[in-house]
Amino acid sequence: MKGFRLRPRLAVAACAILAVTLVGCAPLSTRPSPHSAALAEPARSAGGKIFDKWCSDCHTAGGPGSLALQRKYQGALPAVLEQRNNLPPDYVKLVVRHGVSFMPSFRKTEISDIDLALVAAYLAPSQ
Predict the structure, then answer these.
(1) What is the pTM of this model?
(2) What is the reported pLDDT for 63?
(3) What pLDDT is recorded for position 2?
(4) Nearest CA-CA partner of 13 in 89, 92, 122, 115
(5) Residue-range definition of the domain harbouring residue 14
(6) Could you tell me where the DSSP H helices lie in the chain?
(7) CATH number at residue 49
């Protein structure tokens, strides 16, 4: 098509979303193929960078978000989000978009849907 140019950033983001989606579609009773795990790695590392930018100020050891979770769970669950293994991507997206307790919500103009999907995949339990 005339004038059509694929933007490199958009293509990378689309591939990352596709990788996360493909890994998430595997039934729990089957092992993911080595190929799908390799596809998910770039999404996890990209999600980690986005987490560092937007979330780590509050959700690392000693941060106000981690301290609030520590009080809430009283040791039953890890307070640091990166140490958790029970955060479904849809729950992460819901909390980020709507906030909870004193955590503010984040608009799409702050954290795009693509970036949010990468963060959710980063925090999701490994399969």
Answers:
(1) 0.64
(2) 95
(3) 54
(4) 115
(5) 8-123
(6) 8-24, 34-54, 64-73, 89-98, 113-123
(7) 1.10.760.10
For the beta carbon of residue 115, count every other beta carbon within 10 angstroms.
22
Which of the pair, 12 or 125, is modelled with greater confidence?
Answer: 125
- Give 24's pLDDT tier (boundaries 50, 70, 90): very low
Structure tokens given for 68: 């609030």
Residue 119 · residue 50 · CB < 8 Å: yes
Which amino acid, 116?
L
Q: Are 40 and 19 in contact (CB under 8 A)?
A: yes
Average pLDDT over residues 35-56: 74
First-last CA distance in the chain = 40
DSSP result, 8-42: HHHHHHHHHHHHHHHHHTS-TTSPPPHHHHHHHHH
